Amino acid sequence: MTEVKSIMIVGVGGQGTLLASRILGSVLTENGFDVKVSEVHGMSQRGGSVVTYVRFGEKVYSPIVDEGEADYILAFERLEAARWASYLKKGGTLIMNDRPISPMPVITGLMKYPQQVSEKLVDKGVKLISCDALSMAAEAGNARSVNVVLIGVLSALADFPEEAWQNALKACVKPKFLEMNQKAFALGREYALKNL
Predict the structure, then answer these.
(1) Single pTM value for the model
(2) Separation in Å, CA 108 to CA 14, 48, 102, 112, 113
(3) Any domain includes 112
(4) Total domain count for the chain?
């Protein structure tokens, strides 16, 4: 019996966490795993915190990931990375877009955006891969492709053939957006392969 693995995708509404989880689910299904996906909205409107759990193995009974269980966390934004880091298991990896997106309390001046998020995570012993996914997404042709850049980074760490990831992109992305998402994926994957 293969061990059940867990991946969390965390971000804010409108960042494409659902597409990222669909791509991931497609790769895992193609590789013969039982896959359970669950999306949890902190706030359903754009800008609210969004968490997607993806669990896979020979047989998965629940999609929910508890604290200390995630093998990987994909964080679309620094604050979300800090918020969910405790869900990472010992030896797990946090992949983070190193760009802040200010939540409403920061925008309105009620709170200050936390400083040195990366350093604090590393000080806590988190295995962190931090990248400027927004710049890579813009280079690929669409700043909204941060989600696919991070999937590209994950693809370099996860033990699945690149062809499975390409098939998943074709299956999940609308044809008119496919080429730019393939570029975003390639930039993320290349970044990880060069920096790991």
Answers:
(1) 0.91
(2) 20, 15, 10, 10, 11
(3) no
(4) 1
